[in-house]
Design brief:
CATH architecture: 3-Layer(aba) Sandwich
Protein name: SDR family oxidoreductase
Number of strands: 11
Oligomer: single chain
Largest sheet: 9 strands, mixed
Radius of gyration: 16 Å
Pfam family, one: NAD_binding_10
Strand content: 15-25%
CATH class: Alpha Beta
InterPro entries: NAD(P)-bd_dom, NAD(P)-bd_dom_sf, Semialdehyde_DH_NAD-bd
């Protein structure tokens, strides 16, 4: 069993990742929370937590951690402090702790933020964090979904690097992709885009691995 730190565990997508990992025979989720008041929600489900604030020192959060899922976001309020610098801080700490894999939840459009007509600051922050991860020498996977929805997951996606297609995708399906890329034999040193589609998630990931 590998311990997986879920950064952004109190967010909508992060919670789904935690729940998926909880039912996995291979991974143990460790939910990173910012406030003590958030611990109870997870402890009631018998899920371990660690206190950590991305705007402060977070080096202690990676004790006995094997892999990281970074699904944190400031909701547009502190894109530089959290989405960019917070991610960099976690990447540095992961490198120092010899983390085996870092799975980054990014965003479609982060490859060319200068072309954005909206959310430009957010996409720039995600772009900078992604590029920092690519040069970190950590084993990584960067996932760039289209617009996130709260629709029920279909278990099917469209995938590409790049996809050259806009679209949306449910948070449930994104959480499935995030957890599946934690496996050692899943896509590594790779960055791809996803939206809702007609191909089963596992098959779509395999097709990208073999392409």
């Amino acid at each position: 069993m590998e311990n997986v730190l879920v950064v952004g565990a109190t967010g909508t997508t992060g919670r789904k990742v935690v729940n998926l990992l909880k039912s996995s025979p291979y991974f143990v989720p460790i939910a990173m929370v910012r406030k003590e008041s958030q611990i109870q929600e997870f402890s009631e489900q018998d899920i371990q937590t660690v206190l950590g604030d991305l705007e402060k020192d977070i080096s202690h959060t990676l004790d006995k951690i094997h892999k990281v899922v970074f699904a944190a976001g400031s909701g547009g309020r502190k894109v530089v402090e959290v989405d960019q610098e917070g991610a960099k801080k976690m990447i540095d700490a992961s490198k120092n702790n010899k983390i085996k894999k870092f799975v980054m939840l990014s965003s479609m459009g982060a490859d060319h933020p200068e072309k954005a007509t909206e959310l430009k600051g957010y996409l720039e922050a995600k772009h900078n964090a992604d590029e920092y991860l690519k040069t970190s020498n950590i084993r990584y996977t960067i996932i760039r979904p289209g617009a996130l929805t709260n629709d029920k997951g279909t278990g099917k996606i469209m995938i590409g690097k790049p996809l050259n297609k806009r679209g949306s995708i449910s948070r449930e399906d994104v959480a499935q992709v995030l957890t599946r890329t934690l496996y050692d034999d899943a896509l590594s040193q790779d960055c791809f885009e996803i939206v809702s589609g007609n191909e089963l998630i596992g098959k779509a990931l395999d097709s990208l691995t073999n392409s």
